[in-house]
Design goal:
Elements (H helix, E strand, L loop, with lengths): L1 H7 L18 E5 L6 E2 L3 E3 L1 E5 L12 E4 L5 E3 L4 E4 L3 E8 L5 E14 L4 E5 L4 E5 L8 E7 L15 E4 L4 E11 L14 E7 L2 E4 L4 E3 L4 E8 L2 E6 L4 E5 L6 E3 L3 E3 L1 E5 L5 E2 L5 E4 L5 E3 L4 E4 L3 E9 L2 E10 L35 E7 L10 E3 L2 E5 L7 E7 L5 E8 L3 E2 L3 E3 L2 E7 L5 E6 L5 E6 L11 E3 L2 E5 L6 E5 L5 E5 L10 E3 L2 E5 L3 E6 L5 E6 L9 E2 L4 E5 L3 E6 L4 E7 L7 E3 L2 E6 L2 E6 L5 E5 L6 E7 L3 E6 L10 E6 L4 E6 L4 E5 L3 E5 L4 E6 L2
Parallel strand pairs: 2-9, 21-29
Antiparallel strand pairs: 1-4, 3-7, 5-8, 6-7, 8-9, 9-12, 10-11, 11-14, 12-13, 13-19, 14-18, 15-16, 15-19, 17-18, 20-23, 22-27, 23-24, 25-28, 26-27, 28-29, 30-62, 31-32, 32-33, 33-34, 35-37, 36-37, 37-38, 38-39, 40-41, 41-42, 42-43, 44-45, 45-46, 46-47, 48-49, 49-50, 50-51, 52-53, 53-54, 54-55, ...
Length: 686
């Protein structure tokens, strides 16, 4: 038998040996991965246990290690993981036979930030977090990684979505998060100034209001209060609005003007840096360039459209034939609302195509001014401070230079001035220290100073009629007549005890509010000619119209008094601001923050003008073809207010200036705007 066996083996004299079967690994258990995120730059030692199909450890198996993303982390032959960049990574250990095991690591950039505050720079400054003191109760390691599940959006800037942690991160005081962006990766059509910081809520991006872009260092920053997912997006335009004094307005042939387009997001916040495309429906009449600049070439009408990001806004602009200027009948503006009638009317036709700023000059520093008056080539203006630095300044009408000034000191008040025949009359107020001053218009020299009764009241400008100066005054109200040359008191008569009013003149009579009506006094003697009794005729300055009437605008009523019949002609209730102006049978008055035009004869409402922005403030000034209106300061279009000129036929604004205030129109062709800041703007309108 043994011989047979040897023969069967082919005569091999060597005894056969048995080979060791290869090791088969059915699975691998990988351990050692921390549950917390791993910081960039650190290492983690993983331990792998190979198992056969029966679950028994195979200690002799040689394992192979690999990383799913070598840019995020590498792994050595011994299972040592080195974290290189933030992100998620899977480490796999494989053995003979194909069995393997995996573990996942959350690798994040990290930087500490303590209770004292400071700036944490992450990823080489790609993201920074700046926290004020006490924003964190204890030192915290901030964690950052690219957002793994950030929703895609057409407005998302690639490479800017990050998850800021840890999950428990909360700032007691708002911190500032800044993310750097690559301008080469902006979405199509996006501009850098349109970028904003966003936070991920649920599955959508929500803008962080007040975030801002710095195009110099290519960052977008905003305030954050907790850990979350943040990114840079270009915010879509939700709405376009048009701004500027010509919205809904008109221009004359040969005139140009400017419109502005403001883009808003869904919150109504302004989106900066967004370009608009401008078009005109009738370029044969009105053209518009790429910056919103308008030019009128022929009479007509055009719809101007501004479009951005698919959203549009429009306004209709009228193109008018250019007026021919005529100043031949204009009278100088010497007292409140121009003259003794206080009608606020300058009999002239103006051509706004020629309007241009002449000068802006400070009459007082940061103090609101009264309505100016003009005489002898100068503008005269006083301050309205209450127990502040009271000042009177005479400005050269051509240059704005201060010709002379007088500081009254920190007295109670100085009232608006009046010019007549080389003298400027002004009243100062207080208690026992109230005076009517007569100052030489050429140099401010005192011609007289007359004490009068007063009890902390502030009055309107004096009225000069013949050789008399008439003004409100009195310890418990009243009206004085002073001699225009000497300042001597001729008489004192009863009148309402209230602030702000001035008498008016009509046919040799002086119209005075009494508190219970309107009295007409003989100017020479002071005798009462008649009184129209009505409790609505309280403390407002009367305005003498062109129909033998007086118009009185109180805070709640506009009343026309028929001076021939000595009765109320008509009355209109409302919320009126300042004295009315009247010209050519029409009364112009501010009511409820807008301008009303009413028929002088019966008060019928003819038309209303609403400012493009802000609230109209009276009194207004009217010419034969224009109405000048001031808009109160604080308006979003012009923080210092604005002044508009309205064409009376078109009933639309045709010109604007970015400052409002008390208005006066000189017969020399200068519109004066006395501002809250203490400066006077002079506009050449002739």
């Amino acid at each position: 038998m043994l011989a047979s066996a040897a023969t069967a083996c082919g005569g091999d004299s060597t005894a056969p040996t048995r080979e060791t079967p290869p090791v088969q690994v059915a699975s691998v258990v990988v351990a050692g991965a921390p549950s917390a995120p791993v910081l960039v730059g650190s290492t983690v030692q993983l331990i792998a246990t190979p198992l056969n199909a029966s679950g028994v450890t195979v200690p002799t198996a040689t394992l192979t290690w690999r990383s799913s993303d070598a840019a995020v982390a590498t792994v050595s032959a011994g299972g040592l993981v080195t974290a290189l960049a933030p992100g998620g990574v899977t480490i796999t250990a494989s053995g003979p036979g194909g069995g393997s095991g995996t573990t996942s690591l959350d690798i994040r950039a990290g930087a500490p930030l303590g209770p004292d505050g400071g700036t944490a720079s992450l990823l080489g400054g790609l993201v920074t977090v700046t926290a004020p003191g006490a924003a964190l109760a204890q030192t915290t390691t901030l964690l950052l990684r690219p957002a793994p599940d950030a929703p895609t959006a057409p407005h998302l800037v690639p490479g800017t979505a990050f998850e800021l942690g840890p999950e428990t991160l909360a700032f007691n005081r708002a911190a500032t998060l800044a993310i750097r962006y690559d301008p080469a990766r902006l979405p199509s059509g996006a501009v850098e100034n349109g970028l904003q910081l966003h936070q991920l809520f649920a599955s959508g991006w929500v803008v962080i209001r007040g975030s801002r872009v710095n195009t110099a260092n290519k960052t977008v920053s905003g305030t954050v209060v907790r850990g979350a997912t943040y990114a840079v997006l270009t915010t879509p335009v939700s709405r376009v609005t048009l701004r500027g004094g010509l919205v809904g307005g008109a221009l004359y042939v040969g005139q140009s003007g400017q419109l502005g387009a403001v883009m808003l997001d869904s919150y109504g916040d302004t989106l900066t840096g967004r370009p608009a495309a401008w078009t005109s429906s009738n370029p044969q009449s009105v053209t518009v360039d790429s910056a919103g600049r308008l030019s009128v070439v022929a009479p007509g009408e055009a719809t101007i459209t501004a479009t951005s990001d698919g959203k549009s806004a429009t306004t209709t602009l009228l193109a008018l034939a250019r007026p021919t200027a005529d100043w031949s009948r204009a009278a100088e503006w010497t007292t409140f609302q121009g003259g003794v009638r206080h009608a606020g009317h300058v009999a002239a036709t103006l051509d706004p195509v020629t309007f241009q700023e002449r000068w802006v000059a400070p009459a007082a520093s940061g103090i609101r001014l009264h309505q100016p008056v003009v005489g002898d080539g100068r503008a005269y203006v006083t301050t309205t401070a209450y127990f502040g630095a009271q000042r009177f300044a005479a400005l050269d009408l051509q240059s704005g230079a201060v010709v002379w000034s007088r500081d009254f000191g920190a007295i109670h008040s100085v009232n608006p001035p009046t010019f007549d025949n080389g003298t400027v009359f002004v009243m100062t107020g207080g208690h026992q220290d109230s005076f009517l001053w007569g100052l030489a218009a050429r140099d401010g020299a005192v011609r007289f100073r007359t004490a009068y009764g007063n009890q902390w009241s502030q009055y309107g400008a004096p009225l000069v009629l013949g050789d008399g100066v008439f003004s409100a005054g009195g310890y418990y109200g009243g009206m004085y007549r002073f001699d225009a040359r000497s300042g001597a008191i001729a008489y004192e008569r009863p009148a309402v005890w209230a602030d702000g009013w001035s008498p008016a003149a009509s046919g040799g009579q002086v119209l005075v509010p009494t508190g219970s009506g309107l009295a007409a006094l003989d100017a020479a003697s002071g005798a009462t000619a008649y009184t129209v009794g009505d409790n609505r005729l309280t403390a407002a300055t009367p305005v003498v119209g062109g129909l033998g009437n007086a118009l009185v605008a109180t805070s709640t009523n506009l009343i026309s008094v028929d001076l021939q019949r000595r009765a109320i002609a008509w009355a209109q209730s409302g919320s009126f601001g300042g004295a009315a102006a009247v010209a050519n049978g029409v009364v112009y008055v501010v009511n409820n923050r807008q301008v009303e035009a009413r028929r002088e004869g019966d008060g019928t409402l003819l038309w209303v003008w609403v400012p493009p922005a802000g609230a109209a403030a009276g009194p207004v000034v009217v010419t034969d073809n224009l109405l000048f209106v001031s808009v109160a300061a604080g308006d979003s279009f012009a923080p210092t207010g604005a002044t508009y000129a309205l064409d009376l036929s078109a009933r639309r604004q045709v010109w604007s200036y970015p400052a409002g205030g008390q208005l006066a129109l000189s017969a020399q062709g200068v519109l004066l705007i006395a501002q809250q800041s203490g400066s006077v703007a002079a506009i050449s309108v002739r």
